[in-house]
Amino acid sequence: MTALPEASTIWLDGALVPWHAASTHVLSHGLHYGTGVLEGTRAFATADGPAVFRLPEHLRRLDLSARMLRMELPFGVEELAKATVDLVRTNGHRSCYLRHFAFLGYGAMGLDMRSSPTVTAIASWEWRSQLPDARGGIRLKTSSWRRTDPNTVPPAAKATGPYLNSVLARREATDAGYDEALLLGPDGAVSECTGENVFAVRDGVLRTPPASAGALEGITQDTVLTLARDLGVPVRVEALLRSDLYAADEVFVCGTAAGVVAVRSLDDRELPAAPGPLTERLRTAYEAAVSGADGRYRHWLTYVE
């Protein structure tokens, strides 16, 4: 595991501060109780300079997540968008990963969250895919850990606390020699991976689990569904069983930090094609969209310069 590549500056509560000055108190509420929300966003190099991909959608989801947790963000979506652009420009990135983060800070301890102020931060750094560079596909393992019931923690909220579930599942998979974990929902249906949505292709139809399976409604997932429809590919958002993935012609995962990544095997069962032809078409279309090469999707890009 490589160290985090530091940038010079972090945006913290309305100000650009030096990287190592962006600190918080050890008794912050979010550190002890997981009362925080986050977004992973990326800026990509384009012919017209760096551009943040689907920034408004990410920031609207951050605001929605905060409201679901009954946290009040001190900054609006437009203010956070401007701060994001200012930060990328200040740090001089051509491309980077962005972490938008809001959490309850120092003010009170205990389960009553009402007396703790909200701290808001944006960080950027140069970060490659969080999955191995595997053009030939990754190896998945179904985890013994399961996604929590959607009535326990709302899957539409991208909150910090529930990520412990993903951390445990990823550790189990990597310790066993796999690249990533597949999580099932409480009923045994396919949910998602630890940080990516999952897709299956069979007989030319693209399928992905719904939010009711405990899966986050991913922005990259929505991007892939849009690209597929524009390519004339039939898509279905519906319940999937693990056996549906075993029987698929192709399986791939997608997420902001990963991009579009083919799956080579699941539970030591080799897939017929990795990457399959539709996976390759969608990966190519995704890369053209995020880089600005496909002008039809320039509305998804917020340019820094």
TrEMBL record:
Domain of life of the native organism: Bacteria
EC numbers for this chain: 2.6.1.42
InterPro entries tied to this protein: Aminotrans_IV, Aminotransferase-like, B_amino_transI, BCAT-like_C, BCAT-like_N, Class-IV_PLP-Dep_Aminotrnsfr
Entry keyword annotation includes Translocase: no
Requisite cofactors: pyridoxal 5'-phosphate
Pfam families: Aminotran_4
Keywords, alphabetical: Amino-acid biosynthesis, Aminotransferase, Branched-chain amino acid biosynthesis, Pyridoxal phosphate, Transferase
Catalytic activity annotation: L-leucine + 2-oxoglutarate = 4-methyl-2-oxopentanoate + L-glutamate; L-valine + 2-oxoglutarate = 3-methyl-2-oxobutanoate + L-glutamate; L-isoleucine + 2-oxoglutarate = (S)-3-methyl-2-oxopentanoate + L-glutamate
SUPFAM superfamilies xref list: D-aminoacid aminotransferase-like PLP-dependent enzymes
Pathway noted in the entry: Amino-acid biosynthesis; L-leucine biosynthesis; L-leucine from 3-methyl-2-oxobutanoate: step 4/4; Amino-acid biosynthesis; L-valine biosynthesis; L-valine from pyruvate: step 4/4; Amino-acid biosynthesis; L-isoleucine biosynthesis; L-isoleucine from 2-oxobutanoate: step 4/4
Function, in words: Acts on leucine, isoleucine and valine.
Protein family: Belongs to the class-IV pyridoxal-phosphate-dependent aminotransferase family.
NCBIfam families: ilvE_I, PRK06606.1
Name of this protein: Branched-chain-amino-acid aminotransferase
